[in-house]
Protein 1
Amino acid sequence: MYTFESLRLQYKPKIPNQLKHLLGLQAKPVYCPEKIPTELKTLFPKSYNFPLIEFEFTDVKKKFPLKVGVVFSGGPAPGGNNVLAGIFDAIKKFQPNSQLIGFLDGPDGLLKRKTRNIFQEDIAQIKNLGGFDFLSTGRGKIETIEQKEVALKIVEDLSLDGLIIIGGDDSNTNAAALAEFFLEKGCKTKVIGVPKTIDGDLKNQYIEISFGFDTASKTYAHTIGSLLKDALSQKKYYFFVKLMGRSASHIALECALATHPTYTLISEEIKEEKQNLRDVVVLLSDIICHRAKENKNYGLFLIPEGSIEFFNDVQTLIREINNYPKENLTQVIKNHLSKEAKTLFEDLPQEIQKQFLLERDPHGNVQVTKIETERLILELVQKELKKRKEEGSYQGSFSPQAIFLGYEGRSAMPSNFDANYCYALGLTAALLIKHGLTGYMAGITHLNEPVEAWTPIGLPLISMMGFENRQGKEKAVIKKALVDLKGAAFDLYKEWRLKWAYEDHFQFPPPIQFFGPHEFSDQLPLTLKLDAMKTNEYRYVM
Amino acid sequence: MYTFESLRLQYKPKIPNQLKHLLGLQAKPVYCPEKIPTELKTLFPKSYNFPLIEFEFTDVKKKFPLKVGVVFSGGPAPGGNNVLAGIFDAIKKFQPNSQLIGFLDGPDGLLKRKTRNIFQEDIAQIKNLGGFDFLSTGRGKIETIEQKEVALKIVEDLSLDGLIIIGGDDSNTNAAALAEFFLEKGCKTKVIGVPKTIDGDLKNQYIEISFGFDTASKTYAHTIGSLLKDALSQKKYYFFVKLMGRSASHIALECALATHPTYTLISEEIKEEKQNLRDVVVLLSDIICHRAKENKNYGLFLIPEGSIEFFNDVQTLIREINNYPKENLTQVIKNHLSKEAKTLFEDLPQEIQKQFLLERDPHGNVQVTKIETERLILELVQKELKKRKEEGSYQGSFSPQAIFLGYEGRSAMPSNFDANYCYALGLTAALLIKHGLTGYMAGITHLNEPVEAWTPIGLPLISMMGFENRQGKEKAVIKKALVDLKGAAFDLYKEWRLKWAYEDHFQFPPPIQFFGPHEFSDQLPLTLKLDAMKTNEYRYVM
């Protein structure tokens, strides 16, 4: 059957000029990009002072085979297959006898030595397609000393020159530790990370964006645009749309800039301003009342998945509930909660109360990701509006709909941008291994320029690390990049949002296009474009 | 700002050859397509014996101006703007002084004489874009004699030559009655219907599909494909996806054929086989258990929005509950429900029980569309699996997710197919008015052939009518087309579904493409293709 997938397999990712002649490239250490805290030196004595790597052309063309292992880690993101394609094509160019070995089912599969040799025919069947189904993935970790020992034994048994870990912040934190561990043990296997996450929270001055963010946010933005069009068409519904994206609000901000919905919550701002859930309920209700006066009883609110854990009052409630085992909680609530926490709890819809009480993670903590924030906020707003209606301060009609956008964005067919970006990341990851580098993240800079000008780099994983309190302990981790409240993207949103709230400035992005005019089929994420602009420029964008 | 919408405005809908030379076309009565029941003759003495209309070329080119009114009726569907564009371009070709007047906010707006003159500049801003926001729509009706009198006065005041009603089965039923009424009153205004509904339930041998169905089902099928890819990638989730589409399961069947999910409920079959909710819960649980044995703890079920009202046991429960006012229902359930109904009710999750008890429509009936069927079935399956696990007959893991796909499909940017189809429908509607025809639906046949060969027709609205029991009364209505359980599309699905349930045959349709290879950017709905095939052909399609 001739499917769109078969058509898509024929797409040839665009290749940056610097990566067109892989054999002549030489790694060029540049400088240590960040000041490394002393504590990190102690933890990573072998790898703490690695330099940033760029590449330059030379006449020397060294050809030798590489044996490389690769593993997907964590949730899927569009473009993973193209990372595999890039690695494969690069090592085969280094020497046709090179081998690529995929570990199945994520880090757990690596530890169980579940492998699959990857051949040209495989790559030809998966290139430019979405999903992590070719190797499958998992949320396992290689973290403890025992796990690292098992991994060491396996990579040595397989005689791997390199191990490429395609994952998010946690997976790359573990990649850094594994690289250090292999160095200590004199193991030849180089460990390279590739920045994967639709959440967009793995980025910094060198890693401009993680792969998958573009496709996922474009997928959501298209749906949001259609919902906005629907809201306008019948002038009847308020959509409360929760967006996947964990703690950070990058996806919400990107979608807000792409669609100009009625209002968008930004978790980082909620935290910074110490907002209570109640404040947001009042804010949204105010917007609804204001619009009702102009006979606009419709709209759309964007709610980041992680927002629930940033509300000041919710944090207090969760902290207090976490103090008690989940048995007898009804008694606890009656007798032990503070007045503030108790008031909030009693204000919650029954179903949500249950979610607070019943779902606990393995550490016994309330599982905030399981709380249906979009329904929670919807119901509280509904209650507030009912009250206002009784008081006579609101006369509108309110038909709300709760919607969650998530899974469909993680495994969608990658946009041309993600297809190109991932292929270049794969080539770069292989290059880093060829040059004997370990403890690096493969990166591509200058993404805001045409693909030809994209520039491969190796960024020391250590340079991305800092200390975070995790379950009561200070731990060295790759810092999650949150929305920069002083950055161009948020600044622009903040400037416009009240206009968007009261007037209608809805935008309707198309479904992802793989063909047609370049400016649409190859468009970058807006936040990426904005972040690359100087302050004075971005004010004229919208 | 140069948006994708501005690009899309430049798309020129393809025009059927027969509609390329509008001025020379003459209406040609063919024959009365259906035997009309005597009762309809009594109800529609003026219009019961209208013939089917085709068009033929002549040398006569009559030019005269038309004044036409147009109204959207009911929920939005992609392509509505192109119907307006077609009408506009046609009447301007008939004579440049022709006028198009839009009624705002649906039939209610017509009755309130809320109008807007439509100009070339308007059409240039809305062509090929989704949504009914240009005129807005509403669920009002023109049904009672008083309403018809008001409508009559307004179309006479405005001196309209024609009134075009863009709507579904109910709206076109009312269009037929309005046409008859205008004839009785000697009013010159011709009433023409245009078949609009994403649900796909307005079709017959002449109306091959309603507009909007293609875009909506492609929008959903793309999302479903991405969810299937996600299910495969992490091998962890079962998605329970409810699809918009009211009583009929056309959208579910179309999406099933496009994506080959684990299993798809078809309401018409549930009804035909007198299945209980319990039967379906057992069936889905059996599939899950079977797959778990092969370590496949993931999958996706499609659930048509309307399925809930077709389960035999749910029908009994609803019927019994409808007998009592919503006050004191707890008592009713204890004391008055039959054993069967009571058992079912007590088996339901608490939230769903509430939905059965609390939501009533204006006639006091349980509002089945408000029941979250996807969550209901999910929770009952979860309960069943828990029981089986305790009994030892099931060892799998079960992580379910409930998802509803609906509003985003109704107002999406129309596919090339819907853009072309709607434009041709608009041209045809105007032609019918030009030829003094009333009580007709504008139609295009031969949709399965290239656009050039599409053929405009006028189908007498009466020929689509039959009698249905509505709130205890026999009423003449345009029959809702349900999924034909003897048709090619269902037959094919039935043949494959167990294979799809146990093995994985997932398909991953792309987001709607407006550019690129013709076979993808201009693809027809699969059910339309299948229905056009002869029995022997369609078995070789999949």
Protein 2
Amino acid sequence: MLKGHQTWEFDRKPVILATGTVGGPFEANGELAEDFDLLHEDLWIGQESYEKAHRLLFEEACQKAMEKGGLRKEQVQFILGGDLINQITPTSLACRTLGAPYIGLFGACSTSMEGLALGAMIMNGRGADYLLTGASSHNAAVEKQFRYPTEYGGQKPPTSQWTVTGAGAALLAGEGDGPRVTSATIGRVIDMGLSDPFNMGGAMAPAAVETIESHLRDRGIDASYYDLIVTGDLGEIGHTVSLRLFEKHGTPIQENQYKDCGMMIYRKGQPVFSGASGPGCSAVVVYGHLLNRMKRGELKRLLVVATGALLSPLTYQQGESIPCIAHAVSIEMVKERGS
Amino acid sequence: MLKGHQTWEFDRKPVILATGTVGGPFEANGELAEDFDLLHEDLWIGQESYEKAHRLLFEEACQKAMEKGGLRKEQVQFILGGDLINQITPTSLACRTLGAPYIGLFGACSTSMEGLALGAMIMNGRGADYLLTGASSHNAAVEKQFRYPTEYGGQKPPTSQWTVTGAGAALLAGEGDGPRVTSATIGRVIDMGLSDPFNMGGAMAPAAVETIESHLRDRGIDASYYDLIVTGDLGEIGHTVSLRLFEKHGTPIQENQYKDCGMMIYRKGQPVFSGASGPGCSAVVVYGHLLNRMKRGELKRLLVVATGALLSPLTYQQGESIPCIAHAVSIEMVKERGS
């Protein structure tokens, strides 16, 4: 099962039976609006705080996944998830409603693939019949906590990114039709000494490159194995930095097979600076748009590399640079189960 | 592997090859001082902030476990861990130093057993040769974040608990001598509507009871199977509440085989109110004192039920009650490996 240093190859290849994706008003005006199961017209979603709206996003994504998978909530044995809010309370409170045994994760914007990797590990080990895993973020709740309340109208530099309001969840099963999780690479904490919290993409790029290169080495393949390698939320700046690093290391990767979720979700003209970010970003783009493309036969082999900046306002204030991480999960259209 | 609804039975029974436990000055004066590998004389541990001292606790616990297990850090494939600080930055920054691929967890004070359950799942699925899992807390860092800086000298009610300054880590291996992880039960989020953040034990007791009863039902055993069932940090009040719940449910459990880590770590006379708490509490008591008792042959079958209160200062301010959780892991002295 362990392959190389830090990669798991899943013999049983768990199936992503169904997914649920929920977005906010900014996402409804975005490039991928048609790939969402549910889009909300305003950021409050009828709740009395942004954090409670955040909780609801995750609840709804899980409910949509169960509904589309034809499962009642009693049939889901575990939920793995997390978010960026202090003590991941939106996810925990959503799981209070959802009722299944709950495994709380923190990987910042890498949470989507941290959860999918661990979820696939549990499925592979026959630790569940069905489980849900997902991640979410809410623009106004995250901005308030990490920077300033959006009501202040604070200015941002062009290196900054726009936190996605959205949640994506995947329902994993041992059997069934759908894309399968074939392997996962857990990333190391990489910190190149950057400390500007308005340039997360630049800080996270080396972590993405390290995880992709480790993944290819561990599996004994090159980048051309995949139809698409997609990073979580490097944004335009981080994406460019990562391409330069691949070039510097002599790792062949084609620009047309290497994309970033943070550059895909919004339309040109939406004021998102360097691109999108937030745990919800890769979760909604992968569990919505990209899996739809796989189901249409446009992609057969996908590597998702969710990137996370593991800082807090406090570590920044205490002069720490930004520790970053990236976890990679391969999702493939394969007919046959392995062993 | 899945047994019943929410329990994993580990066929390969991963071994706890070695552990590392580190404590602060209050723990050095406590009941279990002799069971620590390392005790610090002051809360700063030579660092310029309590959060940086907190990070160091976790680093040292992992280093001690590797040293005692005779492993170099390159041999450890994964680290699973978490803490209570916003965005679990002490654990993430420790993993920057330690260097192994890192899986960040958030389960509040249940993190120790969340990590041991997932770590054992990974070992059981042959996903690693060696991995580290642990949890930590720092009294002054946690008090500052959740309540008031300790320098304010704020008063506390007798229902409150004292956050442990300490870290405990376990080194898991597929082969070797030592206590073995035989099963794990993942808990649900339980919220009985209590909202007093100075009475966590009372809030967490129903979660502990739910997980213990689920564990016994899933494994088809009764409480007498274990020499000791130990909760994480219910404290005196939560412990009493949980005993009443067992009685009410008709679940037979003997008082002399049912203890709480939060009532074991300090001496009578230390001003800890209802007892100890914090992710470090169950981590140091189990990975220090209780495993030492197992190695001396005093205990053969141990069930650890780490309890967590998944609130934040913000959820409290927004009028939410306290969502709680408990994860249970059984550790047994068994000679033979299963299948």
